[in-house]
């Protein structure tokens, strides 16, 4: 089955009936938007079940297993419960901002689905500024959470909101730098073009083999961007109860919950598109439907790793988290960017360039880990010293 | 072609914005509405709230946001550079290196000034 041909034949059918071209376009857009929305909502419901199952297994529990086979109906039951729950708005809250926050949270995360390429050219909007679009709408999420935290007029929520802003803004820089390096490699910001460029036998063209350090930087920063352990300080249950969404109940809480899971899924999807070849796989270029299958398998493996990390690691302290971003990831990202730009400009044959890129990536990764290791080894000695203070001559 | 792609984003934006509003309105019909003063008070672990939450907060958060703005501008400059990388000459690369160098100087300055410390 060819998805593109299906869409084209649908458009042709409508035009044959005699509907004017403008209306056909509009119908096409609305249909595409509704399909994307449906995919996003179904995914969210399935992801909640998937993550709960993984967390259960990691912690030697069964996870949901009562409602339906393997507990598959459980998220539907939860959604139904949340729909019919009483919705409490605190008397002190700023009503307009309080009610707008969950709407913006859902809005921004669903908008991100528009540019993700599910298969070759099977993408909501095949725009050539896909990466910028992702960054722009991704940044809207911290806005929604700050609004929620501030409008609740609750000290825990306010602290959670502030932590969201400082954490998500900081970690956006390593994520942006990782995207920048991939754009540098491919010379395009179109996500479909980036996925197309990673063909080759048995996934040898994937950027993760050429730029391993960039992928690791992206992955660590994405853990923080997705508000997941070990970086889930903004909803640290033991410190600030639940963070920004403490005063939310019923459907408004459900929207934040949904945004949280979809955010991780989108981050995994972007990781797969940038580093693991997106929809690339055997015969994917000929049969787009096969590309969709490969894409979803890869994204779910990626999501599994995210959930695995979340279920395994303890939480960091907030000063450690901020230092790690600004003093480890950002300098590492800038070094990688300069190294990749210079190597690409040398004009060597492509095999030599790729080998050189790989070596430089490994070197930068090893140097970073060595510095981190030295620091943690000397931690008892210089407890009062600042993290990685650069040694500069005093002016 | 291009208009078609952005048209979908426009329609999608409207639908994605209206959808949560419609759902919230729908739950308004379904859910019970029995508010009372205790239920509607601020929840802070069951202890009575002391003082207002809208107070002056630490300037630390503001400092991080300020440094972030600098690096976000970097993204605006470097993304076009990265897209056009194959077509531009060595001179643009040197320019980009100088640009990143200036950024790094700013980062080191903030570092030395303890702006990156969470006190």
Structural features:
heterodimer, A: 395 residues, mainly alpha, 14 helices, 68% helix, globular, B: 119 residues, 3 helices
Structural notes for this entry:
The complex is a heterodimer of chains A (395) and B (119). Chain A is mainly α and 395 residues long. Chain A contains 14 helices and no strands. Chain A has helices at 3-17, 21-58, 74-83, 95-111, 130-151, 155-186, 191-196, 207-210, 212-225, 237-240, 250-275, 288-312, 318-345, 350-377. In chain A, α4 (95-111) packs antiparallel against α5 (130-151) and α9 (212-225) runs antiparallel to α11. Chain A is globular and about 65 Å long. In chain A, 48% of the residues are buried. The model of chain A has no long low-confidence stretch (mean pLDDT 82). Chain B is 64% helix and 0% strand. The mean pLDDT of chain B is 80. Chain B has 119 residues and is mainly α. Chain B has three helices and no strands. In chain B, α2 (60-83) packs antiparallel against α3. The chains are: A mainly alpha (395), B mainly alpha (119). At the A-B interface, α2, α4, α5, α6 and α11 of A face α1, α2 and α3 of B.
In short:
The complex is a heterodimer of chains A (395) and B (119). Chain A has 395 residues and is an all-alpha fold.
